[in-house]
Write a structure and sequence with these properties.
Layout (H helix, E strand, L loop, with lengths): L17 E3 L2 E4 L15 H11 L3 E4 L4 H14 L3 E6 L5 H21 L5 E8 L2 H10 L3 E4 L6 H16 L4 E6 L4 E3 L2 E3 L8 H11 L3 E4 L16 H11 L3 E3 L10 H6 L2 E6 L1 H16 L7 H4 L8 H19 L9
Parallel strand pairs: 3-12, 4-5, 5-6, 6-7, 7-10, 10-11, 11-12
Antiparallel strand pairs: 1-2, 8-9
Length: 335
């Protein structure tokens, strides 16, 4: 049996946490333990972060295990966090067939039992209608990948989304500029475009967005090495825009650049690739250690210590804790 404050495997956490079969489930209240907590506006998370000189992590999940990993880590660190799911790598057909509503159904119950401040984000929706569906389903923050849109469409549709979201008490993130993508052997910047400070200021003024994702050399999906970020350019954008800035491509963002990025306007770091990588590597290690015959009911979907996906969950939670500390969020929860 693990000692108090630990779970099997040495993942040390708060003694007050909830455990099942040696697996940490978070410090959040159970569903029979009084009223659930409301979601916190993402804008409020940013107000607190800017005042406190730290960044808030959006640590992207894709199912209930990964979402529990993020919340468990945030509660262990007593840190505000943005929970949520991304659309960029998801099947468009699945999203259109009710996937967005299913993701909201996973996220809302967990977010509302959290004991740290949380917002719930639908990230990188493919279009305006998907973002609206996310808001209708219960996400209190949405982001549309408008980076490849022509100017008039971006201004028109993001303005419409802002009006729709703000009427529901929700926040909107938009993106101006286009990030390069990682490719085998390097970085493909053939379609990339840095965010123009003057254009960004005009875009923010005309749309009324709450925060802006920027392109300053950061890279999507890069797993080897660090992106060549231009912090001078980042600071120039913030001087013109004045809104909280968002850094996508957090997996490859240089750790030594984090303090200056926060001082230069970044309130939110998006991380996904390294989380899936840590989760997957833990699954591979777990499966390789199995005997030839296992009980499928114990290793798939049991939510016990024997559950294969709990190995990934623990590894991912450890990585999330590291990132929260990197962004200075530990101990910043105010409830």
């Amino acid at each position: 049996m693990s000692a108090p404050g630990e779970c099997g495997g040495g993942f040390g956490l708060h003694q007050a946490g909830v455990y099942s079969g040696g697996v940490y489930l978070g410090r959040g209240r159970g569903f029979s333990e009084g009223p659930l907590m409301p979601l916190v506006p993402m804008t409020e998370l940013f107000v607190q972060a800017r005042a406190g000189g730290y960044g808030v992590g959006y640590l992207e999940a894709w199912d209930s295990y990964s979402l529990e990993a993020v919340l468990a880590a945030a509660e262990a660190e007593q840190a505000p966090v943005i929970l949520g799911f991304g659309c960029m790598m998801a099947s468009a057909a699945w999203l259109e067939a009710g996937g967005i509503e299913m993701l909201a159904g996973l996220g809302l119950p967990l977010a509302r039992r959290a004991e740290v401040p949380v917002a719930l984000l639908l990230n990188e929706a493919h279009n305006l209608e998907q973002a609206k569906r996310g808001l209708d389903a219960g996400f209190n923050a949405v982001m549309v990948d408008s980076s490849a849109w022509e100017w008039d469409r971006a201004v028109r549709e993001i303005s419409e989304l802002v009006a729709y979201a703000h009427a529901r008490g929700a926040s909107v993130e938009a993106e101006l500029g286009r990030l390069p993508d990682a490719v085998k052997g390097g970085i493909d910047d053939s379609s990339a475009a840095l965010t123009d400070p003057e254009q960004a200021a005009e875009f923010a003024r005309r749309t009324g967005i709450d925060c802006l994702a920027v392109s300053v050399g950061n890279v999507h999906l890069l797993t080897a090495g660090y992106a060549p970020v231009d912090l001078d350019h980042l600071e120039a954008i913030y001087r013109k825009v004045g809104l909280p800035l968002v850094m996508h491509g957090g997996t490859s963002f240089p750790p030594q650049a984090v303090p200056r990025a926060i001082a230069g306007g970044v309130a939110k770091f998006n991380v996904g690739t390294i989380l899936k990588k840590s989760f997957l590597e833990a699954l591979r290690a777990q499966v390789s250690s199995w005997p030839e015959q296992v009980n499928p009911h114990e290793v798939l979907g049991s939510h016990k210590a024997t559950d294969l996906l709990n190995a990934g969950k623990k590894a991912m939670a450890a990585e999330v804790r590291r990132l929260i500390r990197l962004y200075g969020g530990s101990g910043r929860a105010w409830r």
